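Objective 1b: paired records.
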Amino acid sequence: MPAPQLRGAEVELLRLVVERPGIGISDAAKELYLAGTSVSTLVNQLARQGFLARETAPADRRAARLLPTPAAEARLGEWRKRSADLVRRQVSRLDEADRETLLAAVPAPRRLAGTLHEEAERA
């Protein structure tokens, strides 16, 4: 990927803000299981790099809403494309039996992710 290099937590925050534009820092921290101060630091870094914009929340002038910039959406789109291409290439190198095993295994992690998300929502 072109500079600047983004760390995992930065990519995760960008993904969240693209999926939920207007999310606040505390909600983002809860969603990502990070401390609010950690998310604030990430927001500051991503804003300096031109990937996030902050606007004042109408309901609470002390709170900030996070919005992706066009640069963030382009960068995330490129990251997704490259990741998908990498996985596609590697899966194509597997033999038929391994590909079938992977395909059969996909529903279990999806169910696990769903139940983990449901439990996190209740917490």
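Objective 1b, second protein:
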Amino acid sequence: MDPYRPEDEEDFVALFRQERVHRWMGDGTTSEERDRALFGRIFSKVYARRLFDVWAVRHEGRYAGHAEIKPTEESGGHEIVYALHPDAWGRGLGGELARAVLDHGFGTLGLTEVHATVAAPNEASLALLHKLGFVHVRDLAEEDGSTTRLLTLEAPRTAPRTAPRKVLPESQPEAVSEAPPV
């Protein structure tokens, strides 16, 4: 994953023009002009204002998809969004991509949980997210009558680090204290 470059526009638009991709993204089918405008807003709004993290996904040096992590009202927190070109499907890249975005969210951003919204019929994405540990929280009714699943993954719990015991000089052996976990 790396930031988009202006020369990625054609690949970005081609990704979102793919029927097997756009049917699961946002409001479904849009015009090419809207897809180009969306690409432009990555630079004019998202990057310029540092609103959230969004990346071009490359595999073996070639554009393979799109990824982002952003705050959303639907989840009340940060949501991961990703899409791979159908040519990249079935190679395990979706899992690698989702894990990389999650690592960024939990590590770099310090989030305590991350959400995903997935169209109920999108069984492949639901299965992948469940495999990664996401749990179904609730269903969201869409204006068109369809259902979107809201899933959540809590940050991995790590064992608290314990600081070494601090021992005072032998003249005061009863004065031993535990330093609080860092």
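Residues 32-49 form the longest helix (18 residues). DSSP finds five helices and eight strands in the chain.
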